[in-house]
Design a protein that fits this description.
Blueprint lengths: L3 H48 L5 E6 L6 H12 L12 H5 L6 E7 L2 E6 H10 L3 E5 L4 E6 L3 E4 L5 E4 L2
Antiparallel strand pairs: 1-5, 2-3, 4-5, 6-7
Helix pairs in contact: 1-4
């Protein structure tokens, strides 16, 4: 039976292992936010800038149609499998990774391909590129927007450039 000093060392080692695993998962979630931004949001922003000349950019990402609880956990942990987690498991991950102000979210990119990310990581990327990021909690949507020069029609139907 270990004495108190040995038990403290055991606990400190366990904490170190969990901390390293949490860092791995958070890096995975940051990469997910980057993937969502590069593969989904950026093409939508470019398309909006090229094709919607009479309006500012406004892209919405719906995060309200999430996967039901246990299925969400299974899909998340299928993707986390490559991280070789020993301490963080499907049954206890909320103890280590839950953040009620910054939930782990997912985006269905294509059939059965999910991108997992945290809102804060996505928001940081979006705002770093100069866009506005707005979360509508009621509608479970993010809006990414930016004012751009637009076209408008004057009273006679002539198309003019509006820069403000």
């Amino acid at each position: 039976m270990p004495n108190l000093e040995e038990l403290i060392k055991i606990r400190e080692e366990a904490i170190k292992e969990v901390s390293e695993e949490i860092e791995k998962v958070e890096e995975f979630l940051k990469k997910g936010a980057t993937e969502l931004y590069v593969e989904v949001i950026t093409p939508d922003i470019e398309s909006s800038a090229n094709n919607h000349l009479f309006t500012d950019i406004g892209i919405t990402i719906d995060y309200g149609k999430n996967i039901p609880g246990y299925e969400f956990n299974k899909k998340l942990f299928n993707q986390l499998e490559s991280l070789n987690l020993n301490r963080i498991k499907i049954d206890n991950y909320l103890q280590f990774l839950k953040n009620s102000r910054d939930l782990i979210l997912c985006f269905l990119q294509e059939e059965d391909k999910y991108i997992f990310y945290r809102q804060s990581y996505l928001q940081e990327i979006v705002e770093k590129d100069g866009y506005e990021f707005e979360d509508s909690n009621e509608d479970k949507m993010f809006t990414i927007s930016a004012p751009l020069p637009t076209l408008e029609r004057d009273a006679y139907g002539k198309v003019l450039i509006k820069k403000d």
